[in-house]
């Protein structure tokens, strides 16, 4: 019994950490640009496919010799490329909707997500089929009499470090000060010699790179990756950000843990719970928004007319 509880707690924390990497990106982008980037998870889920494509390239570059950390290196490169992809998509497409009505930006990013998924499906070899993906770390440790996969521990640790590092950057560095200044008042930031466009590009790179880590860990947790995994992951990440308070990164973390808790509890207690987990997850989101429309840590904005 204790082993089962330990395993379910581990699943809960691992899923919460992975969801938080996606939800934090949603909140960061909304907080700085006031745009709901609905294709954020689609950008993030390009990372596993990029890693799979980079592995044979690295093998060829090293004369076909096996690389001990080949996939880990490919994953790191995929994170950087995905961050750059986020910046390119902002510069070429999303920036044109920055001052447009919210519905236009929403529809445009939903369409962009569909384009990304279809490009992966058609350009990646056998892209319509699930692709086996190796875990970044193998093996297990014994904890309280339970075998704990090293992958789960690494996923949790990396997520904590990344989110903690992001909070540190935003709260203690000059770049973080500029990001917060632009998010609060772009015109005032310009008067202080801060270039909003540069900050927007950097923000997209950071959010997309952190999301890429979430995509890699999500694929590694499942053991496979499909071109349409981003649909569920995007809905869960966005719902976590909304439930916690869109624009609030602590709220995004709390929302992620709530959703992961419901997800794990339903799968552990209900017969065939995996088929119904999203039903209970989104019922939770609806309940939160009914009683707290701005989210758990969100602030109600009052506009004077």
UniProtKB/TrEMBL annotation:
Top-rank taxon: Bacteria
Primary location: membrane
Localisation per UniProt entry: Cell membrane
Keywords: Amino-acid transport, Cell membrane, Membrane, Transmembrane, Transmembrane helix, Transport
Ranges that cross the membrane: 12-36, 43-63, 69-91, 103-124, 144-170, 199-224, 236-262, 274-291
Membrane topology: Multi-pass membrane protein
Classification via PANTHER family: ABC TRANSPORTER PERMEASE PROTEIN, BRANCHED-CHAIN AMINO ACID TRANSPORT SYSTEM PERMEASE PROTEIN LIVH
Family: Belongs to the binding-protein-dependent transport system permease family. LivHM subfamily.
Protein name: Branched-subunit amino acid ABC-type transport system permease component
Highest classification ranks of the organism: Bacteria, Pseudomonadati, Pseudomonadota, Alphaproteobacteria, Hyphomicrobiales
């Amino acid at each position: 019994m204790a082993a089962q509880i330990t395993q379910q707690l581990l699943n809960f924390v691992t899923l919460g950490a992975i969801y938080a990497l996606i939800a934090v990106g949603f909140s960061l982008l909304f907080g700085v640009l006031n745009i709901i980037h609905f294709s954020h998870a689609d950008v993030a889920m390009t990372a596993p496919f990029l890693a799979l494509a980079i592995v044979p390239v690295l093998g060829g570059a090293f004369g076909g010799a096996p690389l001990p950390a080949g996939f880990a290196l490919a994953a790191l490169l995929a994170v950087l490329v995905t961050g750059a992809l986020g910046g390119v998509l902002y510069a070429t497409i999303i920036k044109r909707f920055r001052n447009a009505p919210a519905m236009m930006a929403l529809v445009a990013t939903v369409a962009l997500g569909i384009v990304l998924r279809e490009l992966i499906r058609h350009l990646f070899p056998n892209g319509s089929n699930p692709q086996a993906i190796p875990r970044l770390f193998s093996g297990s440790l014994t904890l309280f009499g339970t075998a704990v996969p090293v992958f789960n521990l690494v996923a949790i640790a990396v997520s904590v470090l990344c989110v903690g590092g992001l909070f540190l950057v935003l709260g203690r560095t000059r770049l973080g000060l500029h990001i917060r200044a632009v998010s609060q008042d772009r015109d005032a930031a310009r008067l202080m010699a801060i270039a909003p466009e540069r900050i927007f590009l950097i923000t997209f790179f950071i959010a997309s790179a952190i999301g890429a880590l979430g995509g890699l860990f999500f694929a590694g947790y499942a053991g496979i990756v499909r071109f349409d995994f981003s649909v569920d992951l995007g809905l869960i990440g966005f719902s976590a950000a909304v439930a916690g308070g869109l624009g609030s990164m602590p709220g995004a973390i709390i929302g992620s843990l709530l959703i992961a808790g419901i997800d794990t509890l339903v799968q552990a207690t209900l017969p065939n719970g995996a088929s119904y987990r999203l039903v209970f997850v989104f019922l939770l989101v609806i309940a939160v928004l009914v009683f707290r429309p701005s989210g758990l840590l969100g602030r109600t904005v009052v506009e004077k007319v």
